[in-house]
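Students often ask why inverse folding is considered easier than folding. One informal answer: many sequences map to the same fold, so there is more than one right answer. In these notes we will look at a single instance of the problem. The structure comes first.
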């Protein structure tokens, strides 16, 4: 069972992500593609069967979530591996522009972040609801290892969200000193033109 703080954090993240998909756009019960459900539930047997039956690996639900996005949100590493081997695209976004990488980074699924980056996920994509990147999400939430991975993949720390906050500002505001220490030198070098 997940610790209460993790459940609350996942619930808040899911709520923020669903703002781009209103109730009027929700799927009719039973209309969610099986492959999306299998990835969300980490049902590897069903996932394999659907992939081998040549199901479209990037099938979407009413909110434009793909199976890879669901696996990333919930930290289902093996489901994500299988989807990527079957040709899932890392750059697809939901109605708000959230990608699988943003979902994994926001929930501190570090191994999944590494896997997605290794498969070409763009560390600088920005979603459309708040202007957050994977780096802003990770810095804001205090996910140090994920921030390191994103920086190693050349994530740009300079973008600001719709409230004018960068990854560094979010890390400072939330007292994530270790992340501030990672970001400050990079931001200083960028500001000095190096």
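Output (designed amino acids):
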């Amino acid at each position: 069972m997940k610790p209460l703080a993790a459940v609350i954090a996942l619930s808040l993240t899911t709520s923020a992500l669903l703002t781009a998909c209103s109730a009027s756009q929700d799927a009719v019960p039973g209309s969610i593609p099986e492959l999306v459900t299998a990835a969300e539930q980490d049902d590897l047997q069903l996932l394999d069967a659907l992939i081998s039956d040549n199901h479209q690996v990037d099938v979407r639900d009413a909110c434009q979530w793909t199976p890879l996005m669901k696996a990333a949100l919930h930290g289902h590493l093996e489901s994500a591996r299988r989807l990527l081997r079957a040709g899932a695209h890392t750059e697809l976004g939901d109605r708000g522009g959230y990608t699988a990488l943003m979902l994994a980074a926001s929930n501190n699924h570090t191994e999944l972040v590494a896997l997605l980056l290794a498969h070409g996920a763009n560390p600088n994509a920005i979603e459309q609801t708040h202007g957050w990147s994977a780096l802003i999400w990770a810095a804001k939430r205090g996910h140090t290892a994920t921030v390191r991975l994103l920086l190693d993949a050349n994530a740009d720390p300079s973008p600001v969200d719709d409230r004018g906050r960068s990854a560094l500002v979010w890390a400072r505001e939330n007292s994530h000193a270790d992340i501030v220490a990672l970001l400050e030198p990079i931001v200083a070098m960028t500001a000095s033109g190096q």
